[in-house]
Design brief:
- The protein has 234 residues and is an all-alpha fold.
- The chain has one domain: Up-down Bundle (Four Helix Bundle (Hemerythrin (Met), subunit A)).
- The protein is 77% helix and 0% strand.
- It has seven helices and no strands.
- Helix 2 crosses helix 5, helix 2 packs parallel to helix 7 and helix 4 packs antiparallel against helix 6.
- The two termini are 31 Å apart.
Amino acid sequence: MFAITPNTLSNFLNSISRYIIFLTIILLVVSGVLIILLENDYYQGISFKIMFIHVPAAWLSLLLFSIMGVSSIIGLVFKSPTSFTISRAMSPIGFIMSIIVLITGSIWGNLTWGTYWVWDARLTSMLILSFIYLGHILLLYSFDHFQKADFAASILAIIGLVNLPIVKFSVDWWTTLHQGSSILKIGGPSVTTDYFITLLISFFSLFLLCIYWFSNIFYIIIENRKIERSKLLE
């Protein structure tokens, strides 16, 4: 990662962006059709279908922050501009994913529990993650020079890694209203095959959408830094 220049990575992402968006559209259509065709849950009715947005967004919010944290460590250790740029480009996408998780979770919670919000360990730790994302974004735009911003935001991203296992294992460590893991757990998924396949397709469609979004943000960041450097040289 630290041996690849930002321009090289940007050019590569631009070269495959048309294929990414094409595959994204296909997977989104397929997942949408599968979600519609799935029978309603016996207990939750049609409301359970929120899961196919909520769960992939939750996985991505954790995955993207993990990448941000690792990129921040690499950036600080190896002074890698590519790593810093990756972390910066990931931040708004991860923030949006965390907001989607909170909104869909609140809707699902109201339909299931009869309330939009409880100070549940899983919900609270996810809310904290969204605040860390927001803090990371604010730090990136709180300094006159991007290098200072990258340093400060990287420190927050590394500290924020501590919250990830809390989000993941909160349902196992504490008694919560939120249901336990039914997919990523020892012994394999506890959902039916059709649910599992639909969930995976939904995840990969959203994942590819995030990659396409990331490639565009990454390009914009590089162009903005070129402008900033040219101003400094004038």
